[in-house]
Amino acid sequence: MSSTLAKHDPVTLPRAREPRGWRWAAVLVAVLALHWVAGEWFERHRDTLAPDSTTRAPVQVALLTPQRIERKPASEAQRPAPATRASKPHAAAEHVLSAIRPDAAPKPAQTTAAAVPASGAAAANAPAASDAHAGNAQAAERSAGAKFSVPPSGELNYDTFYNGVQNQPGTIHWSSDGQTYEMVVAVPLPFVGTFSYSSHGRIDAFGLAPEQYIEKRGRRPEDVTIFNHATKQIAFTRTPATLALPDAAQDRFSVVMQLASLVRGDPDTYRPGVTRQFYVADNDSGQVWPIETIGDETVRTRGGFVTARHFMRLPRSDGDKRRIDVWLAPSLGWLPVRILQTEPNGTQFELLWRGKLAEPGTADAQDVQGTEDANSTVGPENSANSPVEFTHEKP
């Protein structure tokens, strides 16, 4: 019986495998869709994800506008030192010295009285009064205006970064003799070539006065901005439009050294919250840049840590998301130790000091930091590249 039932049991056949390709395709589509949604969300909330330390600026405590810089009369530098006087000075030399040293006044007064009639004594004392008045005027002239000191010249070397990825080293050539200046910035970028920015001009009553700014990005033709101080006009090769040339106008890179010269001249003025306005011309337009002092921070370079003062360009208008941050280091003569530019889409270009952490012109700056950094040493090529204290001549 059991054998009969076993013969009539239905035979179980293996099921044919169903195709599963469509399942994998559905999973792939779902993953791609999730990635797209996540990317869109991240792009819209990029600003909210940024660290507070990089976006928050101190409350503005003072606003500085362009003004004339402190002037040092040429006559002050031309006055002879007492140690170099002749053994028998004549009356005119003694008279000049009496204006500098009040304790020497009786001697020239007696000499003058013996040489002229008594009725002419008042006339003899007139030059002394005139010199005293001129001295007071010169003292007032020295005290007026912003203090300004040009940074030391040198070939400055920087590590360059594009969105955090290190590229080939960049350079800033900076030189000034106190009357003229030249600045050339070279930043190599992969696949597109070297971006170069050059500015040269003179130093006038308001500091650096660019005469020509040239911008060349990779293989593209160069754009030139001309500052015509005779006609008070700014002209461009990129556009036929012209702009009025205001006093103390800068280009995109001379403004860094203009700021450095002002801070170098009077560091205590630039405390957190102090904002200074600069008129800056680009390759086709011009705008006022408000640059605010953020405070002293520690910057890490390949040579070690260095204290630097952080400055940030505030938004120029509503919706302006482009940022420029500059760190100036007092131990480097207030030269820029770091420059960071952030584009509206989040792209970042960065220059970070490369080489010895010493001011150009010093013995430490001329030392070579190992064989790998032999080309990164900063220092002057000749004695003319020593720190320059600005002495102004009448415009």
TrEMBL record:
Q: Which domain of life is it from?
A: Bacteria
Is-annotated flag, keyword Nucleotidyltransferase?
no
Residue intervals passing through the bilayer? 21-38
Q: Which UniProt keywords apply?
A: Membrane, Transmembrane, Transmembrane helix
Question: Composition bias, kind Low complexity: at what positions?
Answer: 127-137
Pfam families in the record: DUF3108
Biased composition (Polar residues) is annotated at 368-388
* InterPro entries assigned: DUF3108
Region Disordered, as annotated, extends over: 65-94, 127-148, 360-395
Q: What is this protein called?
A: DUF3108 domain-containing protein
